[in-house]
């Protein structure tokens, strides 16, 4: 019997592909340290206002707060890229060698002429982000994520990149639903699923709290060593993003936001938590946080006295302690809560990495649900 159990564990481990992720300094943190954050935001607002958007755009994303990256390869022989694995989008894109933007010269760029398996698609594509613009064309090639191989995978190649000059990643790999992918393309997760590369159509994130190493993305199953207790499953309320229903948000036993229920997008593409301005302002008042430029600052001593912010999801409380929702940079402390979701995300809350560092997350495509459990 012991041997049967051992063999079962070996078989399970072989079915799961675990890809290491690295925690990086976000672009917001880098710009803040150099006193460039406000001027960057002003320049990007101007660039976005001048965008004629003749090519169809996708929902807004913000790459200022991306904190975790992993490595994939594209082509034959493989060309390596550092990408963000983003549950808030559904496309894969990287820079191309034909891109002339300054951002492309400081990142790894894909050279189609060096790949024997590359196929030209040529269709023009465009993405408008909350803090940048991508324009390019579609290509097709073999993409590898660890031991997983996705043949004839459609992906974007940039010709123009605006606002990506300082970001510590080359491209983005979206893990959301096909309904928000480039038209007539199959996202990489769906391609892997249809080719039988996954033992189960699930993926899971473990994001380390402090260390730059130790984070992981799992495909095809779940490694139970990364969380405590049992997974609590939450149904997805809309199969575009990984959107779930939230009952309410409270502090000290009092509801402070989402009083009548609301929706939240579970998003590995940002490290922050976004919500409607009025409700986030209410949370900041209780923290005694004060606006300063584009952020809200709080006393660093408040970390020891403030209560947790509790998200009640599907009847279960998910506390977020002040050590998680207040960040310290040099001698200043600021809140990770950001308003403005009513203009960018239709008033949905966005639960980014600061939430996911506390809770191991499993994304189940077949059953359209998300599993959450306290991370180790």
Structure description:
With 376 residues, this protein is α+β, with helices and mostly antiparallel strands. It contains nine helices and 27 strands. The strands form four sheets. The chain has a six-stranded mixed β-barrel. The protein is globular and about 60 Å long.
Rough shape? globular
Major beta sheet, strand line-up:
2-3-8-4-7-6
Strand content bin: 35-45%
Helix content: 10-25%
Largest sheet: 6 strands, mixed, barrel
Give the helix/strand class.
Answer: alpha+beta
CA radius of gyration is: 21 Å
- Contiguous low-pLDDT stretches (5 residues minimum) are 1-14, 44-65
The beta-strand count equals: 27
**Average residue pLDDT:** 86
Number of helices: 9
First-last Cα distance: 29 Å
């Amino acid at each position: 019997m012991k041997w049967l159990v051992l063999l079962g564990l070996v078989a399970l481990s072989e079915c799961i592909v675990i890809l290491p992720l690295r925690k990086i300094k976000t672009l917001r943190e880098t710009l803040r340290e150099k006193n460039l954050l406000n001027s960057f935001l002003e320049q990007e607002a101007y660039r976005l206002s001048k965008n004629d958007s003749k090519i169809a755009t996708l929902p807004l994303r913000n790459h200022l707060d991306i904190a975790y990256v992993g490595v994939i390869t594209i082509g034959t022989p493989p060309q390596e890229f550092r990408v963000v694995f983003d549950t808030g989008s559904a496309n894969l894109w990287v820079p191309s060698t034909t891109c002339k933007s300054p951002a492309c010269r400081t990142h790894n760029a894909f050279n189609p002429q060096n790949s024997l398996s590359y196929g030209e698609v040529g269709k023009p594509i465009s993405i408008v982000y909350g803090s940048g613009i991508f324009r390019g064309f579609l290509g097709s090639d073999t993409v590898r994520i660890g031991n997983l191989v996705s043949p004839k995978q459609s992906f974007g190649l940039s010709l123009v990149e605006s606002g990506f000059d300082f970001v510590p990643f080359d491209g983005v790999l979206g893990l959301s639903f096909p309904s928000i992918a480039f038209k007539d393309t199959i996202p990489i997760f769906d391609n892997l699923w249809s080719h039988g590369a996954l033992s189960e159509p699930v993926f899971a994130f473990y994001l380390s709290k402090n260390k730059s190493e130790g984070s992981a993305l799992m495909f095809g199953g779940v490694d139970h060593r990364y969380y405590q207790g049992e997974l609590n499953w939450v149904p997805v309320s809309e199969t575009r993003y990984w959107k779930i229903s939230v009952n309410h948000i409270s502090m000290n036993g009092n509801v402070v936001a989402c009083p009548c229920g609301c929706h939240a997008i579970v998003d590995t593409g940002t490290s922050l938590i976004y919500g409607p301005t009025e409700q986030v302002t209410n949370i900041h008042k209780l923290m005694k946080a004060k606006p300063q430029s584009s952020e809200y600052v709080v006393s660093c001593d408040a970390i020891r006295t403030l209560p947790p912010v509790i998200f009640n999801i599907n009847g279960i409380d998910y506390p977020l302690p002040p050590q998680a929702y207040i960040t310290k940079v040099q001698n200043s402390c600021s809140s990770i809560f950001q308003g403005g979701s009513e203009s960018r995300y239709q008033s949905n809350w966005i639960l980014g990495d600061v939430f996911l560092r506390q809770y191991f997350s499993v994304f189940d495509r077949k059953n359209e649900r998300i599993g959450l459990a306290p991370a180790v």
